[in-house]
Amino acid sequence: MAKSYRIPTVLSAEELTDKAFHRASKITVNGTNALDTKKKTTLAKITASGDIVKDTFVGYVNKFPRIEKDDDFFPELVDLVIGIDKYKKSLGAMNWAANKTEKIKTEALRNVRRSKDGSVIDSVRSSFYGRLSSIIRQVKNELEFLQECKNKFRALPAVDSNVATLVVAGFPNVGKSKLVSTLSSATPEIAPYPFTTKGIVIGHMDDDWRKYQIIDTPGLLDRSIDERNAIEKQAILALRYLTNVMIIVIDPSETCGYSMEKQLALLDSIKRGFEGIPIIVAESKSDIMTTDSDNIHFSAETGENMDILRKTIVDELRKIRFEEE
Ligand SMILES: Nc1nc2c(ncn2[C@@H]2O[C@H](COP(=O)(O)OP(=O)(O)OP(=O)(O)O)[C@@H](O)[C@H]2O)c(=O)[nH]1
Ligand SMILES: [Mg+2]
Fold first, then answer.
1. Alpha helices (runs of H) in 26-154, residue ranges in sequence order
2. Measuring from each residue's beta carbon to the nearest atom of ligand 1, which residues come in under 6 Å?
């Protein structure tokens, strides 16, 4: 299954403040006398409001994806989409706010316990509330930024980075989509991908107990990389990080509308951009025309050589190992 990122909705500073105080306002604890009741109630209110705020901050720190420079394909993409420094600083601010909240809560609880005077207890509580809302206010912008990040993260490709992935490249109309749907065990899904309006197409392939992903990228790998603008290059770079094996489809019939010469030039350009990644070159539409090259000649239409092509692909994908295995 495609991975989804279960990032929580981020409350605004106002919402978080309201949540904490609303919860606290409902608490009463009966004591042995009026002072004891006030003391116990105040302790419970401070604990509840402090814990709600602290747990909320801690939850954000834990549930937002951790992005390290040497992680798989994420850093470049995340940096481009949201800005990695600001993201890290915002999570750092959540951490700071969680610790600070815990600290003022402990202090306030201690002061209430020590106190023998009802009005002192009230003033400890109201000054705790003031400090608590001040902490929340101080991270107001970071909370807003993280909520924006959440929305942007949801647009990241729903690609499982722990499943060996085949990426399909080639000019428009050479037969990429047809190949992906023929290889896939179920109808491929379309997932959003930043920078492309068409999204990416994800198919799945089964091999005994293993599963593989097949990705078709409309508009991304169907033109020379050298002709790309900076954003498109970034998108291709990001794609590189999730490509384990690549298949480049060439259409020798040229019914796709591109000459063999142009298609071979694209092949070279992609090979340069994806250095170090195993590349399978296969020629499509063999029912119309074949060449005498050593590439696999297949037809997704008639099924010719599809078994050989599938075996070649699976053999390459089987070699891919992930740290978790
Ligand atoms: N004769 C024949 N036609 C094919 C074969 N594979 C694909 N086609 C046809 O070629 C055309 C393009 O196929 P697609 O699979 O959509 O090509 P594509 O590379 O995904 O094209 P874009 O998504 O535009 O980049 C369609 O009309 C297909 O029916 C094949 O093996 N034989
Ligand atoms: Mg297509």
1. 34-63, 74-81, 84-114, 118-138, 140-153
2. 170, 172-178, 218, 222, 284-285, 287-288, 299-301
State phi, psi for 121 to the nearest 5 degrees.
-60, -45
Compute the distance between CA of residue 296 and CA of residue 309 in angstroms, rounded to an integer.
7
Residue 270, Cα to own-chain centre: how many angstroms? 25
Which residue ranges form the domains of the chain, and what is each CATH number?
13-153 (1.20.120.1190), 165-318 (3.40.50.300)
- Would you give per-residue pLDDT tens digits along the chain (325 residues)? 233 346 788 999 999 999 999 999 999 999 999 999 999 999 999 999 999 999 999 999 988 877 765 444 456 666 777 788 899 999 999 999 999 999 999 999 999 999 999 999 999 999 999 999 999 999 999 999 999 988 777 655 566 667 899 999 998 899 999 999 999 998 888 877 665 666 788 899 988 888 999 998 777 777 777 777 776 776 777 677 678 999 999 999 999 999 999 999 989 988 888 888 999 999 999 999 999 999 999 999 999 999 999 999 999 999 988 754 4
- CA 177 – CA 184 distance, rounded (Å): 10
Q: How many A from CA of 22 to the centre of ligand 1?
A: 60
Which atom, in ligand 1's list, is nearest to the CA of 255? 10
Name the residue of 168, 173, 284 whose CB sits within 8 Å of the most ligand 1 atoms, as the mutation to test its pocket: 173
Choosing from 168, 171, 177, 288 the residue with most ligand 1 atoms within 8 A of its CB, the one to mutate for a pocket test is 177
